Amino acid sequence: QDNSFEQFIINYCNEKLQQIFIELTLKEEQEEYIREGIEWTHIEYFNNAIICDLIENNQTGILAMLDEECLRPGTVTDDTFLEKLNQVCATHQHFESRMSKCSRFLNDTSLPHSCFRIQHYAGKVMYQVEGFVDKNNDLLYRDLSQAMWKASHSLIKALFPEGNPAKINLKRPPTAGSQFKASVATLMKNLQTKNPNYIRCIKPNDKKAAHVFNDALVCHQIRYLGLLENVRVRRAGYAFRQAYEPCLERYKMLCKQTWPHWRGPARAGVEVLFNELEIPEEEFSFGRSKIFIRNPRTLFKLEDLRKQRLEDLATLIEKIYRGWKCRTRFLLMKKSQIVIASWYRRYA
């Protein structure tokens, strides 16, 4: 019920993961259709970049202001941190606080004076500011490192080299928030170089009971996880896309004109192939560099035809090999019979 600094940075990570989900499944998907020249009606969706900016902006972000409070000389408390948030984020549409002078929530009794609320992509979350400054400073880790380095056990000492008094850096160590922010940035950079697959888990009820579905809870998760927009984009778009060269290479055996070799541009070969197979025009579209197939059943049909063709080709190869083998054996036996007969006649 009481969300503090730990839950705040966890939710920040969730926001970044949702952002890359939006980038890869909604934004990139629609931009690819436009880039390939496919006729497309843009589908609106909520982009949570504004929430990520509220947290991680280098000047006005919550983490930046928290670090600034930790560095500031003088009396620094969680209340002074909240006051700073109220000054900088008061007009932000996803930030709520009763202490803000221009707040729209002065009479919101569900929001205590020592808290602030962020409207995340998955709903509103209220954070208790108590402990934010101390947890961000992370002084315990430095004290722990120094204590562990003094241990007599060599392994423990080796695990905490930063506790060595001779190597004490006068530069202020990074805060917990800045370290977490850097780790999240590294994770995002890594994910963007990959082709991730997403599994969205829906919590059916709050009691963790079997066979119980809370309709309101499930609908809330589906709405805020961006699944409705994702389904709309997928239904309006194409289930499969592939560059012309590998597509022609995979399915060219299904058409006499393209098998075994096609002399010409790959796109023209794919057009000939699809016309030969009599695939309905509404089932595919030709992009600048890719073929787009709308329904999975069309792809399954192509795969079934390819599988059958491979079996036919395997049978043909086997038939030719067996014929060659039998003919070779026959010719060898015939040659041997002639040699034997000639020697027998000479003897007789």
From TrEMBL:
Annotated PROSITE patterns = MYOSIN_MOTOR (PS51456)
A single GO BP annotation from the record? actin filament organization
Q: Keywords on this record?
A: Actin-binding, ATP-binding, Calmodulin-binding, Motor protein, Myosin, Nucleotide-binding, Repeat
Q: Does the keyword field hold Transcription regulation? A: no
Myosin motor domain: residues covered: 1-307
Q: Name one GO molecular function term.
A: actin filament binding
- Segments of this protein annotated with the region Actin-binding: 184-206
Tell me the protein family, please. Answer: Belongs to the TRAFAC class myosin-kinesin ATPase superfamily. Myosin family.
Q: What is this protein called?
A: MYO1B protein
Organism this protein belongs to: Ibidorhyncha struthersii
